Amino acid sequence: MRVLLTGASGFVGRHLHRALLDRGDFVVGIDLNPGSRVLEGDALDFFRRDDERYDLAIHCAAIVGGRASIDGSPLGVGTNLALDAWYMRWLIRTGTPRAVYFSSSAAYPIALQQPGDVRRLYEEDINLSYMEEPDATYGWAKLTGEKLASYAEAEGCRILLPRPFSGYGEDQDEAYPFPAFIQRAKRRDDPFEIWGSGDSTRDWIHIDDLVGATLALLDADVTGPVNLGWGRATSFDDLARIVCSAAGYKPQLKHRADAPRGVHHRVCDPARMLDHYVPTVTLEEGVRRALAA
């Protein structure tokens, strides 16, 4: 297939780029990042001027980072909204038949992710006709993007909406929790710093499985929202213990109450994904790979 891939130099984008090429697809990669080796052009300019039709378009481009970036750069939402709006307009203008819009677990209502609530999050927990407060402005951007996608679908484009939970991998930027923990363990930090109380939980999914699930869902012609995760709740304290045990030491855990921490409990129900793809890289295996990298 002829595939347009935005955000092609980002964490998810570069792994998808490699997987698409391995499948034999012809990929045009564009990105906001000047100097990227896969850069074909600025995404916003591309969507404004390009009229070429592709078999598939995958939209990964966004201003995003770890929790400090999300909390500290709320106006980054403006760029993301512009990117998403022009992407949807481009899909309609070019008659692109199949598309992916990467949403996020940040789009889920924060009211469902509070202390004492240990439920799993289902795709139906987001109601685009009555949007509840998501996680920060990044969550609002993703909610709005999903709403825009519904308009593009009404014009005939079939759109898959993956909602990744806590994606991670060996080459992820250290601004994210997983690689930050790996680097602390490699340095054998003691005490080992954890933002927040350490008992908040996340649902970790390795980048190989995130990409594998996305391609499997496309092959099965799935549309609409699909959670990408294991459905396994792991606290940050437990993640630290797994990482440090694999690194061969047992430090004291130091909790920073003054640091950004996000919602308390974020774990998905992965049943819709499991109908088409079963993840293979456990958190323990992902930790071993990252420590060996």
Q: Can you tell me about this structure?
A:
- Strand 4 (98-101), helix 5 (136-154) and strand 5 form a beta-alpha-beta unit.
- Helix content is 39%, strand content 16%.
- By secondary structure, the chain is α/β, with parallel strands linked by helices.
- The relative contact order is 0.14.
- Mean pLDDT is 91; it is low at 34-40 and 66-71.
- The strands form four sheets. A six-stranded parallel sheet has the order 2-1-3-4-5-10, sandwiched between helices. The protein has a two-stranded parallel ribbon with strand order 6-9. The protein has a two-stranded parallel ribbon with strand order 7-12.
- It has a domain at 2-169 and 206-231 and 270-280: 3-Layer(aba) Sandwich (Rossmann fold).
- Helix 4 (76-94) runs parallel beside helix 5 and helix 8 (236-247) crosses helix 10.
- It is globular and about 55 Å long.
- It is built from ten helices and twelve strands.
Task: Provide keyphrases for this structure.
single chain; 293 residues; alpha/beta; Rossmann fold; six-stranded parallel β-sheet; two-stranded parallel sheet
* CATH C-level class of the domain at 2-169 and 206-231 and 270-280: Alpha Beta
CATH fold naming of the domain at 2-169 and 206-231 and 270-280: Rossmann fold
Percent range for β-strand residues:
15-25%
Q: What are the low-pLDDT stretches, counting only 5+ consecutive residues below 50? A: 34-40, 66-71
Radius of gyration (CA) equals 19 Å
Biggest sheet, strands in spatial order?
Answer: 2-1-3-4-5-10
Structural class designation = alpha/beta
Question: Whole-Å distance between the termini?
Answer: 32 Å
| Architecture (CATH level 2) name of the domain at 2-169 and 206-231 and 270-280 | 3-Layer(aba) Sandwich
Average the pLDDT over all residues and give the rounded result: 91
Q: With helices defined by DSSP (H or I, 4 residues minimum), what is the helix count?
A: 10
Q: Give the H and E element order.
A: EHEHEHHEHEEHEEEHEEHEHH
Shape: globular
What is the number of E strands? 12
Tell me about the largest β-sheet. 6 strands, parallel
Q: Helicity, in percent?
A: 25-40%
